[in-house]
Amino acid sequence: MIYKEEIARQYQLIQDEITAGLELLDGTATFEQELWEREGGGGGRTRIMQNGNIIEKGGVNFSAVHGELPDAIKKAFKVEDNNFFATGISIVIHPNHPLVPIIHMNIRYFEIDENTRWFGGGIDLTPHYVFDEDSQFFHNYLKNVCDEFGETFYTKFKTWADDYFYIKHRNETRGIGGIFYDRLSPESSGISWQEVFEFSKAVGRSFIPIYSELVNRNRAKEFTQQQKQWQYQRRSRYVEFNLVYDAGTKFGLETNGRIESILMSLPPQANWVYDFKAEEGSEEKKTLGLLKKGIDWV
Amino acid sequence: MIYKEEIARQYQLIQDEITAGLELLDGTATFEQELWEREGGGGGRTRIMQNGNIIEKGGVNFSAVHGELPDAIKKAFKVEDNNFFATGISIVIHPNHPLVPIIHMNIRYFEIDENTRWFGGGIDLTPHYVFDEDSQFFHNYLKNVCDEFGETFYTKFKTWADDYFYIKHRNETRGIGGIFYDRLSPESSGISWQEVFEFSKAVGRSFIPIYSELVNRNRAKEFTQQQKQWQYQRRSRYVEFNLVYDAGTKFGLETNGRIESILMSLPPQANWVYDFKAEEGSEEKKTLGLLKKGIDWV
């Protein structure tokens, strides 16, 4: 049996590991922490880094909240119990370097009662410029994490990420995807609660090795002002996805969540250029061609 | 009797007047025009100016589209006829100068059949810094336009704008409001179709005198880099409103409208700073205090 308090405690440890790892990776900046409490119950630790050596704006948020369910949600879930519990870590990192990718990670657990509880989460990558070898490294790493827990996990969760991180009005994916899963339980996954929990932690603990590798591969590369402009334009697509489609953001805005924690995912600077056309044969054009569902990077 | 073709023709003339007026106001840049056709019927003239002397990014779009109504909308409107017609002008101007306000204007006409048709539109102002005398000028000008057509118009449409241009998750209005109206007909307004049409044109024709005055009052003022940063932060709120709440934008994104025309309203550059707090007693703090509903500027 795993208890929600234990899940929250383990997630806090993972948050600590990740912020320590990111400070080491960045080399100069440190995280500022804000503790907050939720009126209806629970609270969180928002940790933000701004204007670092490589991390221009990054947030690593932990929360564990509980309280009464709104009647509508109670009905939708067909539950008797009035109380919910939710805990998770949510990360978005915007690097200052256009050749270093944006990364997002989330692990979470939700519980109403013994029969209505599950894990969710995922990691996905949004490179401003898509490099084949980095994309392959990223997806292979995730496949290895998945393969330890279920042989169908990677394929299923990779497809889920492709479908989820999709900017419909642009007909492009937010980045090169990754994995996304929700409502994971013994019933839906075929593994025990303990194993589902271990999988969730393994996803969380894959963040630092993955992102450190991707940052260190690219941080010393020189870049041009034109590439910097392209980075700002790609970030505007990130804004569009998060404000128009992202379920977590929408839920947070609609339920009067802590706005600054929810919107820490937005980039420090984003640019919109009217009807920008990437040049044929350019790196920008190549990247646009790879922002599609269903690419097999493994 | 007024015909839809005549309304579209008059709107085109107003678009011409406005782009000519804005080119004169800017002094250096000119509009680039893109003609587009809608698959289901009709089309438009998108006119964009970028990197002008004062206009960093501005769009003045005209469209006149027609076609078949989706069944769901047909039912919602309780109409028999399958065809709709819609024409309008939509404008957003982002100036490069932080002491010059962002402005938005829209006039539109929608028709299904003789009994189901109306005008809508409005003008609203989003100053990066709210100046009392400019706000008073703006609202007084609009009140004068309104008063010529109906004595309740200004109060009603001003309140409507306050309610519409509201960023709920920030608990602030997008700017200092203006006027907003919809479904205007003889029945809802107490004036004839011809007069409703004249009112719509009067709103459209008020754009150039209003914005020219506001630009010329402020364009020669010196500004600091800090004010420029504040401008970028205010623009990020504009992005949040347009992507999260604006009905026209949402409708456009959901119905596969012409994306670049819909999203021309987004600023050339916007910045998000985590948990920014304006200093007590600063101009920024004063502005935040004036981004509220129900302020009487007249």
Tell me what the structure shows.
The structure is a homodimer. Chain A is of the alpha+beta class and about 300 residues long. Chain A is built from 10 helices and 10 strands. Chain A has helices at about 5-25, 70-75, 130-145, 155-165, 185-190, 195-220, 225-245, 245-255, 260, 285-290, and strands at about 30-35, 40-50, 55-70, 85-95, 100-115, 115-125, 165, 170-175, 175-185, 270. The first copy, chain A, has a 7-stranded antiparallel β-sheet. A two-stranded antiparallel ribbon of chain A has the order 7-8. In chain A, helix 1 (about 5-25) packs parallel to helix 6 (about 195-220) and helix 3 (about 130-145) runs antiparallel to helix 6 (about 195-220). The longest helix of chain A has 26 residues, at about 195-220. At the A-B interface, helix 7 and strand 10 of A face helix 7 and strand 10 of B.
Secondary-structure blueprint:
Two copies of one chain form a homodimer.
Chain A: H1 4-26, E1 32-37, E2 42-50, E3 55-68, H2 71-77, E4 83-95, E5 102-113, E6 116-126, H3 132-147, H4 153-164, E7 166-167, E8 172-173, E9 177-184, H5 186-189, H6 193-218, H7 225-244, H8 247-254, H9 259-262, E10 269-271, H10 283-289
Antiparallel strand pairs in A: 1-2, 2-3, 3-4, 4-5, 5-6, 6-9, 7-8
Helix pairs in contact in A: 1-6, 3-6
- Which chain pair shows the most residues in contact? A-B, 30 and 30 residues
What's the CATH C level of chain A? Alpha Beta
Number of strands of chain A: 10
Give the strand order, joined by hyphens, for the main sheet of chain A: 1-2-3-4-5-6-9
Strand content of chain A: 25-35%
Q: What is the residue-averaged pLDDT of chain A?
A: 95
Instruction: Specify Rg of chain A, calculated over alpha carbons.
Output: 19 Å
